[in-house]
Amino acid sequence: SYIAYGLPAVLIMIVGPMIQxxxxxxxxxxxxxxxxxxxxxxxxIIAGISMIAAALWGIIMGIEAVFYTKYLTVESYFGNxxxxxxxxxxxxxxxVVMGILVKGKDALNGASNLISxxxxxxxxxxxPYEFLPDYVKKIAVFLPASWYVKNVEMLAEGGKMTAEFxxxxxxxxxxxxxxxxxVLVIAKRKK
Length: 191
Fold this sequence. Notes:
This protein has 191 residues and is mainly α. The protein contains eight helices and no strands.
């Protein structure tokens, strides 16, 4: 469940500066002078960010396969793969939004800490969900990490992908779609 804290923090600090660099005026002017189309430039940026995210996700899944093999069934491992991949997409969208909106590396570091620790505390990563007050649980429903943590706990307890697991995955997919739409809107307004 600590992936809900670490993944957004790491991706914001890796992807955020890359996005900030491409939105700097001098870099944008240099790119516009080249013969490559804006579409191709954007596809290359997306490919680079996707490779970084895929490598990070692969490392996390490899660590899980090596160190937690005796605790996982095949079904729970694949459930964790699906769940963590969806949360990876959410974290990636958050990191792109932060890269576009936040100015400066120090501010990006602060935003990274605020977002990742805030979601982790509100969604039951550091404090078990059942010990959280009711008003915090009502807030946590609107954060993607709470749905991720619910799935992690469900797989840890039963080891099976139930209908509730897939319902929670559907909520994560809705978060992915909403955040990527937000990325597109912010990117368009920023240009």
